[in-house]
Specification:
The strands form six sheets. A seven-stranded parallel beta sheet has the order 9-10-11-12-13-14-15. Strands 3-6-7 form a three-stranded antiparallel beta sheet. A three-stranded antiparallel beta sheet has the order 8-18-17, with helices on one face. It folds into three domains: 35 residues, no CATH class; 113 residues, Enolase-like, N-terminal domain (Enolase-like, domain 1, 2-Layer Sandwich); 233 residues, Enolase-like C-terminal domain (TIM Barrel). Helix 2 packs across helix 3, helix 2 crosses helix 4 and helix 6 runs parallel beside helix 7. It contains twelve helices and 19 strands. The protein is an alpha/beta fold.
């Protein structure tokens, strides 16, 4: 006997059958059930949209990565409203160190929203095809549109976001916190502060000096002990030989991941480093597009891929990238989705839905940002519990 499970969407049935005849007969019965028992409803249309600018100052005005200080994280929030009043929201991070501006992000969102007003609110793939064709680049804006469309679908169906992404594979997600470039002693103290709060994963931002960066790793390891996972992210600050030198200097300190040590376009060097160091090498800036991840994973040029909704242009692309990693047995995790809790919530639901996320995710940087218009997502013992509320599980703060 075939088995099929009911779902909120009238046109979806999962059928498991013993043979082809069972599949055929089950499919006929399902189509009959759908046509006779489920009333057709008018197509929901996207009626309107709003876009607002937000600025989230860092609690540490001197927070920096290699080559850039980032005292404030600017972004935009897009809200799509269907003609029944249901809304979906997305956050676009305007990363100045990646060449984006808040005004440019706002204008990109404006252009994209105008193109999808009046379209089927639940047709995410079709709407994102229109969005991607509206403007070149500006993946954070495209990512916000993708997130808003997914949030809207979840709210129409009255389910948590993870349900429209395939369901929940984990109830909690361990978190990794990022350590800004500072003196080795200051980095050590901040690492100790975070691990005392329950975090068990930290990432040290490196400056591109093998000796000084190795000293940061050494002091952090001495401060946090051997039960904490340490990652290092030079943000492309190294060249091939200096990256290998650094990696060998810190081998004794059990570094879990070396993230994007060289320039994003220098895939040959990234692959050379991965083949010549003991620790796993992770692609970040080199993994912006699906095509790049296809090449990196199929040819096994790296050991892991860092997934980010803003950088990759949305949930659909991130899910595809994760599947490519799974197919090719390459590690992946959700990286630094820095911005409002709204963005972190979207990334959290993606992490919950993907079975092959195999390391801590960088989803708690909102803790160091101020003036967030959203609340929710309480970090407990270095983990986030995946919300079961309708949509993302975060909400607007009271005015």
């Amino acid at each position: 006997m075939p088995y099929y499970s009911k779902t909120p969407a009238r046109h979806i049935r999962i059928i498991i059958a013993a043979d082809a005849n069972d599949i055929f007969s089950a499919s006929v019965r399902v189509r009959a059930l759908v046509s006779s028992k489920v009333p057709m409803r008018p197509t929901l249309k996207i009626k309107s949209y709003t876009i607002e600018r937000v600025s989230l100052p860092d609690a540490d005005p001197n927070w920096r990565i290699s080559g850039f200080a980032i005292p404030t994280n600017d972004g935009c929030i897009v809200t799509l409203t269907a003609d029944d009043g249901t809304q979906g929201e997305g956050y676009a991070a305007a990363f100045a160190h990646l060449g984006a501006t808040q005004e440019g992000t706002y204008q990109a969102l404006e252009s994209m929203c105008k193109r999808i007003v009046g379209r089927d609110a639940l047709a995410i793939e079709a709407n994102m095809t229109v969005v991607r064709g509206t403007i070149r680049g500006n993946n954070p804006a495209k990512g916000a549109m993708d997130c808003a469309l997914h949030d809207l679908l979840a709210r129409v169906l009255k389910v948590p976001l993870y349900q429209v992404l395939g369901g929940k594979t984990r109830a909690k997600v361990p978190l990794l916190r990022i350590l800004s470039i500072k003196s080795p002693a200051e980095v050590r103290e901040k690492a100790k502060e975070l691990t005392d709060k329950g975090y068990r994963y930290v990432k040290i931002k490196a400056a591109g000096n093998p000796k000084e960066d190795a000293e940061r790793v050494k002091l952090v390891r001495q401060a946090v002990g051997d039960k904490v996972f340490i990652c290092v992210d030079p943000n492309q600050a190294y060249r091939t030989k200096s990256a290998i030198e650094f990696a060998r200097r810190v081998e004794e300190y059990d570094v879990s991941i070396l993230e994007q040590p060289v320039g994003d376009a220098d895939i040959a060097s990234l692959e050379t480093i991965a083949r010549n160091v003991a620790m796993p090498v992770e692609a970040d800036e080199s993994a912006t597009m699906v095509e790049q991840v296809m090449d990196l994973t199929a040819n096994r040029r790296i050991d892991a891929v860092n997934l980010k909704i803003p950088r990759s242009g949305g949930i659909l692309n991130v899910m595809t990238m994760a599947r490519l990693c799974e197919i090719n047995n390459i590690g992946c995790r959700m990286g630094a989705n820095v911005g409002s809790r709204l963005l972190a919530a979207h990334a959290l639901h993606v992490a919950a839905a993907l079975p092959n996320i195999d390391f801590a995710c960088e989803l708690a940087e909102f803790e160091r940002l101020q003036n967030d218009p959203y609340e929710g997502l309480e970090v407990i013992d270095g983990e986030l519990t995946v919300p079961d509320e309708i949509g993302t599980g975060v909400r607007r703060r009271a005015a």
